[in-house]
Write a structure and sequence with these properties.
Layout (H helix, E strand, L loop, with lengths): L1 E6 L3 H4 L5 H16 L4 E6 L27 E5 L10 H8 L3 E7 L1 H14 L3 E10 L14 H11 L4 E3 L1 H8 L4
Parallel strand pairs: 1-2, 1-4, 2-3, 4-5, 5-6
Helix pairs in contact: 4-5
C-alpha cells in the first residue's frame, strides 16, 4: 500500500515565499491519494524556542489552511526526520504501507531527511521534486546559481535507492490521467 507524506506545510514557512505553484501541485497529488483512498499523512515541525517561527504555541506552526483539511493523520516532530521519535513508522506499519511518496517543505532538510530515513526503514520511496519547496535560496548557502530542489533531487536520484520524479512524471507513472 502507498501513503503520501506531506512534510511541514506550515503557515510560517508558506508565508515566507511565493509557493503558489508548489501548493497547487501538492494539492493535486493529495487529491490523487484521496481518490485512491490512500493515507495522507501531514507532519508539523514543532520548536520549543519561543523566538522560532515554528514555536509550538504560535500560529506559524499551524498547518497551512490551503491544505490542512486533507490530513488523515498528523505527526508532530522536532527534527528534520519525520520518523525520529514520532511513532510514524508504527502508524505506517499498522496501515500496511510499503511505498511512501514525499512532498512538502523544506526540500533540503525535512523532505530529504525523511526520504532517507524512510529508505533506511525499508520503504520504497518516491520524492516528487517540484512538489517540494524551500524558504532558502542560493544566497543562504553562498552558492551562486544553486537550484536547491534540483540539487537535492539529483543527489537522491543518484543514490539509486530513492525514486525522484517531477509532477508530470508522477502523473504519467502513478495516475490514470493522460
Amino acid at each position: 500500500m502507498k501513503a503520501l507524506l506531506v512534510i511541514d506545510v506550515q503557515k510560517a514557512l508558506v508565508d515566507l515565499g511565493d509557493f503558489e505553484e508548489e501548493l497547487l501541485l501538492m494539492e493535486d497529488i493529495i487529491k490523487d491519494f484521496k481518490e485512491d483512498e490512500s493515507p495522507v499523512i501531514f507532519t508539523r515541525h514543532m520548536d520549543d524556542e519561543e523566538d522560532s517561527p515554528l514555536y509550538r504555541e504560535s500560529s506559524g506552526s499551524e498547518l497551512d489552511s490551503s491544505l490542512c483539511e486533507y490530513a488523515d493523520y498528523i505527526v508532530e516532530k522536532q527534527t528534520p526526520s519525520s520518523f525520529f521519535n514520532t511513532g510514524l513508522d508504527e502508524h505506517l506499519e499498522s496501515l500496511g504501507v510499503n511505498h511512501i511518496f514525499i512532498i512538502g517543505f523544506n526540500t533540503e532538510f525535512c523532505c530529504m531527511f525523511t526520504a532517507i530515513a524512510a529508505f533506511d526503514r525499508g520503504y520504497e520511496v518516491t520524492f516528487i521534486e517540484d512538489a517540494t519547496g524551500t524558504v532558502n535560496d542560493d544566497d543562504t548557502y553562498e552558492m551562486k546559481g544553486l537550484d536547491i530542489r534540483d540539487f537535492v533531487g539529483s543527489v537522491l536520484h543518484w543514490s539509486n535507492v530513492i525514486e525522484v520524479l517531477d509532477y508530470e512524471e508522477y502523473v504519467e507513472e502513478y495516475t490514470d490521467e493522460e
